[in-house]
Amino acid sequence: MTLKHCIIHQIERPVPGAELTTTVRDTENNSAGPAYSLFEQLKQSYQRSSQKQYGYFDSELSDNPVPGWLQEQQQGKSPFAKISQRLLEHLQQKMGDNDEAFSAYMMIAVETVMDQQQLYIFWFNHIEASHIDNTLDIAPSLYIDSHKMLYAARLLFEEWLAQDSTKYLSIITSRGNKNLSDAFNAFIGFSTGPDLAEETGEFLSIVDDYTDSLPEEKTTDYKAKIIDYCVAQDKQGAAVVFEDISTQLNQQHPNEFADFVSAKQQSPKTEIYTDRGSLKRYVRYFGRDKNMSISFSADIFGQNIVYDEANDSLTIKKIPKSLKQQLKNTKNSSTES
After folding, report:
1. What is the spatial distance between Cα 187 and Cα 92, in angstroms, rounded to a whole number?
2. What does each C-alpha distance from 246 to 107, 231, 268 come to in angstroms?
3. Cβ neighbours of 10 (radius 10 Å)
4. Which pairs from 279-284 meet CB under 8 Å and 24+ separation?
5. Residue 186's closest CA among 57, 311, 280?
6. pLDDT tens-digit readout, 49-98
7. For FRET with 82, which of 11, 26, 149, 331 sits at 20 to 30 Å CA-CA?
8. What is 105-143 written as a DSSP string?
9. Predicted model pTM
């Protein structure tokens, strides 16, 4: 992995209704040392986020200059620093449509991963803290909050330029401020692509069909390997590639699982991005109200935990030791009273 380009600008509106101001850097930041370290921290936060949406540049937005600028940069017609400044100006224009107060630093970077270029746009802030100075007094200080990702975007150049994908662009927008989220979305020119929850649900249903067709001694092992792979890919913000899973499951018949998935899908694909919530619900059942919280592995449903729909009841066998001890203690206390 190589950080090819990296530059940081600032944009802010200190109080509601005030004019937007920008602080622009003329030259790229050094892509090594502290800048690279910060980039890696921000990228990890982006990858871990469950708020990502996948899609593409909205072709109906005729006034969106972003794709054209990025093509210029890729073709060597405009330097990266100049393109980044245009992007900041474009963001300033979109943010000018509302009166919200905010302050943000924008890191715009291009990373090369296995000869594939990826553009990242990160919005991040400072957080105020305190430290003890050399007079042993308490003094204010600022540090970068790289863990809280409010707004960000990633573009996979090769997928975009190949024009055969609807998921080459992904973004994160905060749920806490609709005005800023809408402005950031408009700045990118983002259009939602595949329904991740729907695609993940279809895939997990196929996984059930596949594992049900296996000998009983392989069912649990194969299902665990598939889900572990999906969870690991999700944590990296990477796609679930069916051929990769297929090879890991059965090296003697490396195409078996991939062929099974392809035959079962309504619209055959070679990979999908998964919905994290759907994966969690697949591996664990959970629910809560003000008086009760229940969570258990899907593996024991129907065995140690049985649901009776007619009576709306749940029977639990092999109670966890810690819970059993609590129940015993409670019973003993009641008896003594």
Report:
1. 9
2. 38, 16, 15
3. 14
4. 279/200, 279/204, 279/227, 279/230, 279/231, 279/234, 282/204, 282/227, 283/227
5. 57
6. 888 999 999 878 777 999 999 999 999 899 999 999 999 999 999 998 88
7. 149
8. EEEEEEEEETTEEEEEEEEEEEEEEEEE-TTS-EEEEEE
9. 0.78
